[in-house]
Amino acid sequence: ISMLPRPQGWARLTRVAAASAILSLCGLFSVAAAQAQHPIPPPQDKPYLGPIRIQVDATDLDRHIFQVRQQLPVKAGRLTLLFPRYLPGAHGPYGTVDRLAGLKVHAGTQELAWLRDTVDPFAFHVEVPPGVAELSLAFQYLSPVQREGGRVVMTPEMLNLQWISMLLYPAGHHASAIQMQAEVSLPAGWTQASALRVDGQVE
Fold it and tell me: Which of 13, 90, 170, 184 has its CA 20 to 30 A from that of 51?
């Protein structure tokens, strides 16, 4: 029986294909391992440790940047913080986590390292040291400057503060089980109109 000659480079291509398949499998295993190492707690109907305080500085009209600070009660161990993914009225996972920038996490004067989830880009993991009862967060929300980049919510003439884009919240709790206390700093001479109950206003 005659056999066709084996094309030159066949063995090398086969080895390359085999190596690619192995690397692909390794990639799948590494993703699964990463997901197992940092599981995101599923939401439960149990109250969070206490109210989360939020302060938003909305005075940077020229650059369309919101400065956000948060203080939240915590306990020692791994804490997973989530950026809102599903927005009311949006009918889908359209949260703009790509506009969150400059995240810093502090326990008192100590800055803590955070780790973004390798599977869910809306999740951030922090290890809370023993004895720490409160964390302070600081970040910026870079709102669109042109309509091509999304809904413009800040201009020199108007401001549409969307609280759902100004916060990180702890995983493992239903949204209805987390209480928020919010403050906002407006540009000089501006007044606010909101459906939220206003406890106080400082000129």
Answer: 90
